[in-house]
């Protein structure tokens, strides 16, 4: 009886909780890009056109699109790939000694979590509370 009630509540809440997850994750990711591109709350701005600058641009634009629910699947797939590159290139660096391949050791936890979270969002789509849904309804 109790498990059935919990399941019912969870099923009703799922679309809203997923939308919250997508919006918050996208906004947080966009903020990382804003730090790099706009210098918001950061003392470091990568040189224009550098790999870090391009990464910041992807974070800013991709995170904003994901948060708004516009082009969610392709944006999420792109930023998931960016986070995979960030982990392998900047955190792991293909070093095996001393457990450097472990995210807890090489400080790559956030890159790994973002990578798999955005892969999930790419597979799931925008869900409710997405600007893309509203634009599609208005176009029809």
Descriptive overview:
The protein has 140 residues and is mainly alpha-helical. It has one domain. It has 6 helices and no strands. The chain has helices spanning 2-38, 51-68, 72-92, 103-106, 109-124, 131-139. The longest helix has 37 residues, at 2-38. The model has no long low-confidence stretch (mean pLDDT 93).
Total number of distinct structural domains = 1
Distance between the termini: 43 Å
How much strand? under 5%
Count the beta strands.
0
Helix and strand pattern:
HHHHHH
- Poorly predicted runs: none
Largest sheet: none
Structural shape: globular
Q: What is the number of helices? A: 6
Features:
140 residues, mainly alpha, globular
SSE order and pairing:
Blueprint lengths: L1 H37 L12 H18 L3 H21 L10 H4 L2 H16 L6 H9 L1
